[in-house]
Design brief:
The protein is globular and about 55 Å long. Strand 2, helix 3 and strand 3 form a beta-alpha-beta unit. It has a seven-stranded mixed β-sheet with strand order 3-2-1-4-5-7-6, with helices on both faces. Helix content is about 45%, strand content about 15%. The chain folds into two domains: about 170 residues, Vaccinia Virus protein VP39 (Rossmann fold); about 80 residues, DNA polymerase, domain 1, CATH 1.10.150.170. It is an alpha/beta fold and about 270 residues long.
Length: about 270
């Protein structure tokens, strides 16, 4: 299993206490949860939409019966599912290595697979978004969630080609973008489609409301974000809630962590306290 992103900062900033109650809203395969469990004898609730990942996490954190409770659910409904006050909440908005390496989901443009990109099995796939949205709507998705400058032109090209799978979309985009910029621009297209398909920014905004309502006074909310759109949502909602910024600016991975875990390059950690 890959090392979880910024795990030392996560554990440190959750202010783990003996007997506390904590929630990992993005359980994934259990990397962060495993480290949290090692540093407290309290209770941890692990939440994820992806059933397969929850199964892996449950097996990794076995032997912790009575302290670890995995739940398959969308974290935006956190306060409807959890009816007790908690001491700390973690949200990691990135994709896990398991998801990136799953060729059946189409999250990564490095290997072929269906244009799905859903975390669960409900809602529109990325292919259905391309087929059913107008050129103007698709351009708006690419612009708002991928920060693509020539969004309308790219949307027009994608709509006309109507790619069948990841490979055909990547091939199309490699012909569209300049060679030296192709890798980053293709990543932005995939990011934009994934965020829209999974309503990620809406969910992130809603989970902050939910998290605030169940945090105990002095409880910590730790959020790992990966791009400017997420950062704007998190900061805006935090100010509206009146929750304390533990640090004025987000924390970046150390040079040592980046060398050990290149996936952490774009990660930024925000810490709030009720």
């Amino acid at each position: 299993m890959h090392r979880p992103v910024m795990v030392n900062e996560v554990v440190r900033n959750l202010n783990l206490e003996k007997g506390g109650v904590y929630i990992d809203c993005t359980l994934g395969t259990g990397g962060h949860s495993l480290e949290i469990m090692k540093n407290t004898n309290g209770i941890l609730i692990g939440m994820d939409l992806d059933l397969e990942q929850v199964k892996i996490a449950r097996d990794r954190i076995n032997g912790k019966e009575g302290r670890f409770f995995p739940v398959v659910a969308n974290y935006r409904y956190l306060n409807k599912l959890i009816k007790v006050k908690v001491n700390g909440i973690l949200i990691d908005s990135g994709l896990s290595s398991y998801q990136l390496e799953d060729k059946g989901r189409g999250f990564s443009f490095r290997s072929n697979g269906p244009l799905d990109m859903r975390f669960s099995h409900s809602g529109m796939t990325a292919k259905e978004v391309i087929e059913k949205k107008s050129t103007e709507e698709l351009a708006s998705i690419l612009r708002n969630y991928g920060n693509l400058r020539s969004a309308f032109g790219i949307a027009k090209i994608i709509k006309k080609a109507d790619p069948e799978d990841v490979e055909s979309l990547v091939h199309l985009l490699r012909r569209t973008f300049r060679k030296e910029k192709a890798h980053k621009e293709i990543a932005k297209v995939f990011q934009a489609l994934r965020i829209y398909v999974n309503k990620e920014l809406d969910n992130l905004s809603e989970v902050m409301n939910a998290a605030y309502s169940i945090l105990s006074p002095g409880g910590r909310l730790v959020i790992i974000i990966y791009h400017s759109g997420e950062g704007k949502v998190v900061v805006k909602r935090a100010r509206e809630l009146g929750i304390k910024f533990v640090y004025k600016k987000s924390l970046k991975p150390t040079k040592e962590e980046f060398m050990e875990n290149p996936r952490s390059r774009s990660a930024r950690l925000r810490v709030f306290e009720k």
